[in-house]
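I'll show a record.
***
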Amino acid sequence: MTRYVSSCFITLLVLFLWRVEDIAEACICRPQHPQQAFCNAEVVIRAKVVGKKALSNDIKNDIQQIKMFKGCDQVIHAIFTDTTSCSVTLEINKEYLFTGKLETGRMHITLCDYNPPWEALSAAQKNSLTRLYKSGCDCKIFPCTSLPCPIITSDACLWTDLGTDNGQNLACIKRRDGSCAWYKGLVLPKK
């Protein structure tokens, strides 16, 4: 009998720990450079949140679209976020940069997308949204958290200053020779 109880206890413990890991990892987001977020997103817009409504599985954030940087030809009137641990909390009457996906004609965002308040963006980031980020989508950006960083291919840029705003003001742009490099300017380099 003791062996049976012990066996059941171990089985339950393993099942519990397995589920805790699933729940704990439900919303783990890797650091994402603004250019990566731009390139990976289907839609990138600047918008003001004007209302909020809880639905059965989603939260519908009514928005007033200000500018479309990337995406479809239609005007987006609402942004949806789910009610899980990856849900995004948005303030009404505040402007944001939204990067997200289109699912059945509706824009969806998660906590792992890049959705900062508009006023938190630097002038370099705002300018990069109109041209620089798009021109660098052929380049890859690799985060480097500790030196020495691994050797990467020529079509990539190492992002070494993750904890600062510095790297977020740069854009990884493809050069004439096909290699990629960080660019500090506010406009594209001359070709």
